[in-house]
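Margin note: ligand = magnesium ion.
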Amino acid sequence: KSGFISIIGRPNVGKSTFLNRVIGQKIAIMSDKPQTTRNKVQGVLTQDASQMVFIDTPGIHKPKHKLGEFMLKVSKNTLREVDVIMFMVNATQKLGKGDQFILEMLEGNETPVFLVINKIDQVHPDNLLHTIEDYKAEYDFAEIIPISALDGNNVDRLLETIENYL
Ligand code: GDP
Ligand code: MG
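Resulting structure:
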């Protein structure tokens, strides 16, 4: 099995940390280069039963200028073509305007969207349940998976679940 995955989400939710963990140090350095308008491969994870290609989709936020509008358009088209969209959020923060903008942008897209709630090492399980309810009310997610990209908690389960969609 092989397929393409796009990780989207507001700054600092842990996207690079996740990629680092699953793919390795080298890739993170690559992905920290300044954003370009082109979608690019951030890394490839090859396992026994699958190959996952992670694609960078820059510009997924409210555009402030013409180039931003163009980048958003390119990324929107890419999001239609990947197999899975990982929408990553921060478990310690409430659903905000930035998250809402992304979810509105995803409306009408038929690609399965995973809600990946990161940084669960920093929250109490009761609060996590509330967060899940808030997000569920906003979008029909294919899967909801809490993880800690930092300590690796539940990351294997996330990868196994992605495999089922390739
Ligand atoms: P990005 O902007 O989405 O790529 O976010 P980064 O991967 O750069 O992470 C932003 C900050 O959050 C860094 O200081 C990370 O160490 C921290 N971080 C990322 N994942 C986790 C996590 O699962 N738990 C905790 N406690 N911190 C995390
Ligand atoms: Mg990053």
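The chain has a mean pLDDT of 90.
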